[in-house]
Amino acid sequence: MYGGGQYRHSRGSRARWEPRTERCRATGHTGVHVIAHDVGGAVALRARLLHGASYASLCLIDVVALSPWGSLFFNLVKQQAHVFEQLPPHVHRGAVQAYISDASHRGLTAELTR
Fold it and tell me: Given its phi and psi angles, is residue 69 left (phi above 0), alpha (psi -120 to 50 degrees) or beta?
């Protein structure tokens, strides 16, 4: 999935979500609670929004969903931490929503960003 710090939306992504989605469907699991972290958060979110995976709940923790999967963005934050620490709450909230919504091809609904 990784190559030169870049994530490729390709078979690698599908290889992560498809077996889990199909396994849940095949076994009849309907009340699955998912806790997803890092790249797994993006995979779980894409599986839900783009491919119809069904979860009883989805908890996203520290999701890596920003192309090129965080490396450039996180380097900027690290180098300019003093700037990011001064962001007003509404700007920070907007940045977080944009960061997470990058995992979705269609974007996030208002309900998902509450």
Answer: left
